[in-house]
Amino acid sequence: MARPREHDGVVYRRPNTKILWMCYFDRSGKRIRESTFTEDWQEANKKLRERLDARDNRVLEIVRKGEQMGFEQWVDFFLENYSKPPKRAAKTHIANTRASKHLKRAFAGSKLADLTADGIELYLRKRLRDRVRIKTAAGYIERGELKPATVHQELRVLRRMLNVAVRKKLLPSNPCAGVEFPVAVKGLFRPHYLTWSEQRKIEVNAPEYLRNIVRIITETGLRVYKELMPMKKEHLDLENAVVWIPDSKTPNGVAEVPLTPIAVEALRNQLRLSPCGPYLFPSDENPSGHQRTLKTVWSATLRRARVPHFRIYDLRSTYATRLSAGGVADEWVTQLLRQGDAKVFKKYSQMKLQMKREALVKLNRYANEENLDASFAMDISSGTVRVN
Question: Which residues are 140's β-sheet partners?
Fold first, then answer.
């Protein structure tokens, strides 16, 4: 019978060297010897305790692999394998590349496992003090300080990189989870909930094809530029009320999407408007291509409708919010959005104050009434609410 071990690990000095080493056993009983990279006895013992804690938490191999991987090496690997199309959109890759230049410069020489929440916060504070630099023929010109939204984008890119490292078992956890952004940021992702009255105003003032787009997105949640604009007529199956999405932002996005009667009617109208060509929304400039942007016509329509400007992408958020408000379970909303991560659902579906007020008005108005006034009745077939 083997003798019980007196110690889990020990710090010692090898002959002819000042650097302290440590020796300990992993969970399988294998003896591991490695350098602590320090001459200080207390630091060496701290390193040993961290190794033993990692072993007891079953993340020892993850920690050791993270210490071997350099941060710059991991950034290059991420950009090559998890950022380029078709994995991500081309614009996303450009944003990731731009942010990675600053991140690599700040954490040059660091190992992946050396990144801490405190170190990341110090980087953010330094970046918020930096100024915008514009390259000209005569050299660089400095402008005002960087906007907090610009620095926050770099934090989001770093968080995404480290999330992949966690999935690849190079890190036990993402240090960005403990980061608190130093300042309040305006202009971040805050979806706009489109009320029924706003939608009616927009549809009245919009061109017919844009009216169809509004109805399709609010009834299906399709991504406007990635899924709806490149849609081909051959992908429609209006008899069975489904549409096939062959390419999307995420792997979960490639799927059949069920259609409501309102969406089917909008798609039929759009087929009537575009009889020629393979695309549902053909380009005016290129007959063989599809529309690339809706920014100009969308802004003009909102101005005519006297609706405050918001992104057309927020129509997808409206779809999710209406599902949630209608009592659909969060898991099903995530499936209908075709999202890979249920956490993303929190960004899209939110009961806004105005929506809560609308619900309270209905509650007070309809309570204990057996026969509702026809002027307030919902027209299920058209999907609109008539309110005088």
Answer: 135
Phi-psi region of 378 (alpha: psi -120 to 50; beta: other; left: phi over 0): beta
User: Distance (Å, rounded) from C-alpha 150 to C-alpha 127?
Assistant: 9
Residue carrying structure tokens 């731009």: 98
Round to whole Å and give the CA distance between 112 and 324. Answer: 39
Over 50: is that where the pLDDT of 305 sits? yes
Question: Which DSSP string corresponds to 88-141?
Answer: S-HHHHHHHHHHHHHHHHHTTT-BGGG--HHHHHHHHHHHHH-EEEEEETTEEE
Average pLDDT of 346-365?
53
CATH superfamily of 196-385: Intergrase catalytic core (1.10.443.10)
Q: What is the pLDDT of residue 69?
A: 83
| Predicted structure pTM score | 0.60
The mean pLDDT of the chain is: 82
Q: Assess whether pLDDT exceeds 90 at residue 337.
A: no
Dihedral, CA atoms, 101, 102, 104, 106, nearest 10 degrees? 160
Token pair listed for 101: 């230049």
Residue extents of the structural domains in the chain: 9-58, 71-178, 196-385
257: three-class secondary structure by DSSP? strand
Residue located via tokens 């010692």:
12
For residue range 101-159, list pLDDT tens digits in order.
999 999 998 988 889 999 999 999 999 999 888 888 888 788 888 888 889 999 999 99
> Which CATH number is 71-178 given?
1.10.150.130
CA-wise closest residue to 308 among 204, 222, 201: 201
Average pLDDT over residues 324-328: 80
